[in-house]
């Protein structure tokens, strides 16, 4: 099954990966796309690979004749950035079907990959509806059940009340609860 | 009115030579006209009036002149001028703005729903406007100023429900100038607070106030003395719901408010140190002087804990409505309190009530009519371990509370059997909303096809229905059942239901009464959504978030038709502060909003909302 990934942005370069055979693979903006790929992998393998990968000093990424994913997939490599702050990354090495690929990901993303792998066991057991179902599970992650604003505010205020009453609380300029603490 | 009656009446009118001839023509038709002019004003129900207005020209005119109240479910469906031309003698108006999803933080704040053009028209053309009810709209101080100065002598009821955009300065004008105000309601509004003067002005200028509500606002500069002043000067004060204000400061207020039937809000201070016997007594001593007025039967106390609960006991047996949404009771606390409330009809609380609390409710509160169980905190240590609702609680509820008319519940587990049980017992149910929480990985009994079918078949009075599940929660067959077995349902919210476009299309072949449809997290394509919108014969409002997009909205063109506005809120990235004060980025997937309108496309789009213009696709 030939799929390709352009994780080195080599579209304009000399290497042009073969076209994907799975047109339904949805392109979304999040790293969660990997869920579809990982779902076909044995999570034990992924775990052992990550353990091995963290001790690897190899920074190069290999591209073989049988690369892994849809070529439109964009993996965020080279570390995570949030508001200009980079998070430290380690290499994540994946051995699949005779290919070796190395990604530099943050510990959080590595955790995510593991979680997807574990989820995949559940999904594959009840998944008999193919791509549509996959879309549903993806969107479940992107569309969490949101709370009513009024409840949200109450739960935040309750949490703050408890913090204020803890033995280690140091009062800052927080006038929010003056009224509720009137004597 | 049934078909036969309508034909007879039609013949009466046409024989009298219809048109605007008034009492002209034969004397028999003149007599009929007079009769109808006397009778029709007593017909108040909106749908009856709708029927009246299409019988003949004469009746249309009578309805037009005598219509007292209009509800406009979305303010962009008509223009203010059209309203004043059609119903010049209106005395009461309800307007709604932002989609319901804005209550869940899903809609951009500047989406729209500006009340200014409506207030300007009210001041210009509606000299009799006594009641104004605005829901989820943007209201500015200048709007309140205009209302106060122009309609101040006439305005009796001002209801600002989940509105935003104004400050206490606007309220100051209302308090000072609206001397005939019986009811001022601002629950859950976002208000910019400059001072507490508005409340003082209200206290000084008003003696007929019956209803004051600023519950769930963040107003903090509230003087308990002003509340007491209002209670003393307004003998008709029946309902007061306030923001945070320590209950021990309200002793004087409660003593003065002798007609009070409803109270909500306030707050209790947290007992310092470890909770134990001594602290319990200390709290009780603090709050023991609080004596509720003799007619009080609707109560909600913010931050009410187990230590303070005994102050409710003297009135518990009288209570018809109890609000524990913002209380600090655990499951046991709920059980202890509810068993003392045999006359309870309305209860609002969080799922900390648990299955055990529902069992106590089912045993003790046989008059239960409305039950709302919201979602509590997710963190294990913040809520009671027992605080989850499942099929066990639902079954007890269905069997014990046969008068139930409204149920909204967040469950952690569910079975088909519990829904079947509701279908068998809850024959009075008009409004049913179920959300399956996503914390548990395994649910006892999915999909819910059969249970949902039994529920819908059994609860034939159902007018509102919401079902929010997860992938695998309801198959296409189940979705088809919803379409087939909900003849009277006017509003639906569906989340994560169905498996494919087939399910949606089957669903949309049914639902003959469905006027408003909201969907979230479904797997349907744009094309299927558009086709469903065309197939649902009564549909006038559609909102969707989470669907299979076609890239540029092209497939939505299928539902383009006259007077049908289609708008998109493209996907956004919003930065919010999480509980640790850190900025995190939240993805908001795209929304579709489509609705019938006589006003044409909006003219006040913010940057976040885009109309779907078929012309944009002509080049493609």
From TrEMBL, chain B:
Domain COI1 F-box intervals: 29-69
Domain of life, per lineage: Eukaryota
CC annotations in GO: SCF ubiquitin ligase complex
Spans annotated as Disordered: 1-26
An individual GO BP term: SCF-dependent proteasomal ubiquitin-dependent protein catabolic process
Record domain Transport inhibitor response: where: 88-134
Compositionally biased spans, kind Gly residues: 15-26
Protein's UniProt name: Coronatine-insensitive 1
Species assigned in the record: Erythranthe guttata
